[in-house]
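The records we work with from here on pair a chain with its fold. A complete example follows; check for yourself that the lines match position by position.
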Amino acid sequence: MATLIPALGACVSRMTSGEKRLAERLEQKLDDDYLLWYDVPIGPKQTHPDFVLLHPRRGLLILETKDWKLETIQRVTRQMWEIIPGGQVRVVMNPLAQARHCAIQVVNALERDPQLVQPAGAHQGKLAFPWGHGVVLTRITRKQFDAAGLGDAIEPHYVICKDEMEESADVEEFQQRLWHMFPHSFGGVMSLPQLDRVRWIMFPEVRVQTQGALFDDSDVDAELPDIMRVLDLQQEQLARSLGDGHRVIHGVAGSGKTMILGYRAEYLAKAHTQASKPILILCYNEPLAVKLDSVMQAKGLADRVHAQHFHKWCRDQLVAFGQTLPAHNMPVEAKMHDMVQRVIGGVDRKQIPSGQYQAVLIDEGHDFAPEWLKLVTQMVDPSTNSLLVLYDDAQSIYERSRSKQFSFKSVGIQAQGRTTILKINYRNTRQILQTASLIAADLLTADDKDDDGIPLLKPISCGRDGEAPLIIRLPTLRAEATKIANLLNSAHQEGHAWVDMAVLCRHHHEMDECAQALSRWQLPHEMRKGSGSFHPHEDTIKVMTMHASKGMKFPVVALMGVGQMPAAGEDERDEARLFYVGATRATQRLVIGASGAGDYGKFLNPVHAFPSKVGDAFGC
């Protein structure tokens, strides 16, 4: 069975009856390795073909679908068709010319990529795989087509007629009619990397942003990146299939939850009108909010999509609606609590309006206290009822969010039957995920709950291999910080940009020690302490706490102070969650400072677990 994106249930409401029948036939009559997209904008021009088919051996096929009856068609040429839907005469482009126009735009964009064209021979510079285009006439039989002389305007082999796509039609004959639509049969099998590059070029919204700037499709001279990363097919299908109503996605670290949120925000923003309310993205961590906001700005969506961390949003609400702010001299934690309570009270008294946003999207929802979720849920416009919550209980590092009595229903989130679970970790290499799980093994035991409960998910590695994490054990934190600075400098010499690196610390004094070591090595770095400026795209090493790293990712990550975890008086289970969060920020290379007498340093001894997977550096 072929994969249809979006899922049929998510797009059937906007399909014609003929498009629905065709989508069902394509799903049923094509094998598992066929990919289908319905009414998805493609290419730099963002044209909207009815269906796009992609197959590693067969190639790329663009289909236009017409639900016209024979009596609707008055006159046809190879350029234009005259039709009378509803009794009024209209002149439209020949549907085959329409399909070809769309296909040519896509092919021209794909042929810009040297990795997708034939390097030599008679077809040098042409696509390295076949492509074609065609038309499906869902209400005209082949007999009617021939009798009406429609073949004079469209070559018969470029058309599938009503009787040829019905349920009773022969599967092999149906597939042959599709492949007869290919005017160019040269080329070979598409490799998996080529398949990803085709999706990257055709569907800009599924691109996985790297640390660098966004690619500008409007710049015809811009050089395409060597590596093109896209959402995996499950992620793309989920992102495109999200409908209205309340939705919850439970996903392990590295499963692409934030990418799906970004796609959803962009999709909603593009459907925005002057009468639409803004879209709100909320998260707890300030650095993540800053990063999400910078992405929306880069996409030109900041006027429609507001990305903020929760407490800044609360303060803005109090100021905007004339509510009193907490006293300046209050302790920080008490001030934050008081500010939230003032917003809750303001909403209850109707001094702060509910329903302010077209949609609310909550990243890292496990960081939110139940009363926060209840507050934010009220901010969704009832006419759209669009709420998306991303959740992973294994990353709940704040006690406020872990109430034994908590359920989504109890805070007004009605997501029964609209809950999705993502178990595959794509961010980390197998070796990094194994190391992260050494300490958190007991924590990450799968614990299934009902549809409204909070499942605790055990991550499954996508199988991507990489280098073994390096564990360093040195006599003092100062020596550990010096060694980390040395290793990051070496990584830069190997080609990693400074912005690709982060040092994540358990405590602030470890951040100070690290910053001093980086300064001695004259390495550019930025410390993030408390609230304040954070510049995710500046070419500097980011130094922050493990708490502040929630939702972030970096190719190279060093964890400092792990050997002293858990400290006296700290809960071992909570500290295990924190270590897991920190370790899973690394996408390629992980360095762990295990100096000290803490229990976690002992767990990370390669003699005790995964001796062939974990590197160790003693006294160096």
Summary: Residues 400-404, 606-620 have pLDDT under 50 and may be disordered. The radius of gyration is 28 Å.
